[in-house]
Amino acid sequence: MSDCQWLAQVHAMGLLRAAFVPPERIRVLRDYQRLRQDHVRMGGQHIQHMQKSLDRMNLKIHEVLSQTVGLSGSRIIEAVLAGERDPEKLVALCDGQVLKHKRVAMLRALQGHYKDEHLFALRQAYEGWKFYQAQMAACDLEIHRLLEALAATRPATASAADNPKVARSRKKYGPHNAPEQDLGPLLHRIYGQDLSQLPGLTPYLVMLLLAEVGDDMSRWPTEKHFTAWLGLAPGSRQSGKRRRHQCTFIGPAGRMFCLAARSLVRSKYLALGGFLRRVRGRRGAQVAIIAAARKLAVLFYLTVRRGWNYVEQGLEAYEKKYRQQSIQRLQAAAQVFGMQLMPGP
User: Fold this and answer.
1) Using CA atoms, how far apart are residues 117 and 119, in angstroms rounded to an integer?
2) Residue 124: which domain range?
3) pTM of the model
4) Residues 6 or more apart in contact with residue 212 via CB below 8 angstroms
């Protein structure tokens, strides 16, 4: 019997569990979001083409600036394409922080030679990037319209994103390629919780998770079912008495949690960041990121499904708790061998 025949027979007996299919409104949002992600990737290729053209002209502004097409980089590129060649005038177009800390480096980076063929390639790459920025903006309008329709069916809630100080700080230091619209209040009203309070999650990332997993966590009975569906739980395969490890496939939503966990590597005050660094020292970076992503997915599930309010305990409290647990494990291991653990001087 072939696999398709066996699956058809098992399905006829009702022994197959249905796969997760989000409702229609979430599927529409997912289509817009994935189309937007395609535009982000294709726009990133044009940024690489700009950097290549700048390198061939010996303009190293992308090695001084964190973003080639940021505020300062875009002004310099537009001025170069308009015919400006004076390094002093080009540096004057930069942001105040760049002028304060990187003025000398920018002057050295702008000592290049301008050739027509490289300027032509730079212009085409910049226009291509601008085109995909316009495509992303069109997708943002549709996504915002869908989020407003989803939020209209939910009761109004007070959100931390309504604070203008919080909105300004997230706007300035938010992720690259994030929508121009403020999605925090809409997402808070849809979920009923401010998920951006979880470590590593921004309103943009919460919107991406909404498009993948929806707003109804009852499709997964427990957090273990949810993390297993994401591909973040250890896989095992059992047949009779034989049981072996099986590699799991991390889906799109699982990769988003891994992306959020990766941003916690350099955190100074978050407990989850301390957990990630501790596991990384023993098992490596890849295992640590997946482990931290699973913990973050559990927090996401419990916040949405059970209405938990996440309170950050801090890195100091986590290290203190881990030290106590380590001492208890050492004491238990010493008792097995008939010994006693004594504190040092």
Assistant:
1) 5
2) 24-150
3) 0.81
4) 22, 30, 251, 252, 253, 256
CB 48 within 8 A of CB 86: no
- The mean predicted confidence, pLDDT, of the chain is 87
Mean pLDDT confidence for 265-269: 86
| H or E stretch at 239 | strand 236-239
CA distance 25 to 3: 33
Contact 175, 205 (CB under 8 A): yes
Residues 6+ away with beta carbon under 8 Å from 304: 191, 192, 193, 195, 215, 217
Provide the angle, in degrees to the nearest 10, between the axes of the packed helices 252-262 and 203-213: 160
Tokens of 330: 């050492």
Residues 35 and 86 in one domain: yes
Are residues 317 and 265 part of one domain? yes
How many domains is the chain built from?
2
Q: Give kind and range of the element (H or E) at residue 15.
A: none
Contact in structure between 204 and 263 (CB atoms under 8 Å): no
| Tokens 């992503």 found at | 293
* Residue 121 scores a pLDDT above 90: yes
Domain assignment present for 306: yes
**In angstroms, what is the C-alpha Rg of the chain?**
26
